[in-house]
TrEMBL record:
NCBIfam families: D-aminoacyl-tRNA deacylase (TIGR00256). The gene is dtd. Gene3D superfamilies: D-tyrosyl-tRNA(Tyr) deacylase (3.50.80.10). A Gly-cisPro motif from one monomer fits into the active site of the other monomer to allow specific chiral rejection of L-amino acids. This is D-aminoacyl-tRNA deacylase. Its EC number is 3.1.1.96, 3.1.1.-. It is an enzyme of class 3 (hydrolase). Keywords: Cytoplasm, Hydrolase, RNA-binding, tRNA-binding. An aminoacyl-tRNA editing enzyme that deacylates mischarged D-aminoacyl-tRNAs. Also deacylates mischarged glycyl-tRNA(Ala), protecting cells against glycine mischarging by AlaRS. Acts via tRNA-based rather than protein-based catalysis; rejects L-amino acids rather than detecting D-amino acids in the active site. By recycling D-aminoacyl-tRNA to D-amino acids and free tRNA molecules, this enzyme counteracts the toxicity associated with the formation of D-aminoacyl-tRNA entities in vivo and helps enforce protein L-homochirality.
Length: 145
């Protein structure tokens, strides 16, 4: 799995004109699932993400987890995180999981995040989405299993 994590002051994801998910302070998480990824890897990344200390404390230092900062997660599936452009200018996505497996692992990842008591908003799996985000910092981190 690949996660691109961005600290935000607010973020919204829409499908067409309909809002699918919205958060205020927290983390926007783009999730890519690869062919070889497992539920166990999703659990490990959810655990890591829940404890990741990237939120600012009272002194502006990255010292708090999302739950400690009373923040939220906005989690959006994004198979394009597995783009491979080594063979030319047109990306190949052969390393991305097939939709059924990707959805299963993505939903397991969401369930594990929710178990940690933080509000989790989502996009709409497999749909074309528009995301608006106000980045904070900016802080952008990539996690992989």
């Amino acid at each position: 799995m690949r996660l691109v994590i961005q600290r935000v002051t607010k973020a919204v994801v829409k499908v067409g004109n309909k809002q699918a998910g919205k958060i205020d302070k927290g983390l926007l998480i783009l999730v890519g699932v690869g062919k070889e990824d497992t539920r166990a890897q999703a659990e490990a990344l959810a655990e890591k993400l829940s404890k990741l200390r990237v939120m600012a404390d009272g002194k502006g230092k990255m010292n708090l987890s999302v739950s400690e900062a009373k923040g939220e997660f906005l989690v959006v599936s994004q198979f394009t995180l597995y783009a491979d452009t080594s063979g030319g200018n047109r990306p190949s996505f052969i390393k991305a999981a097939e939709p059924a497996l990707a959805k299963e692992i993505y939903e397991h990842f969401l369930a594990k995040l929710k178990e940690n008591g933080v509000n989790v908003a989502t996009g709409s799996f497999g749909d074309y989405m528009n995301i608006s985000a106000e980045l904070d910092g900016p802080v952008t981190i990539i996690l992989e299993s």
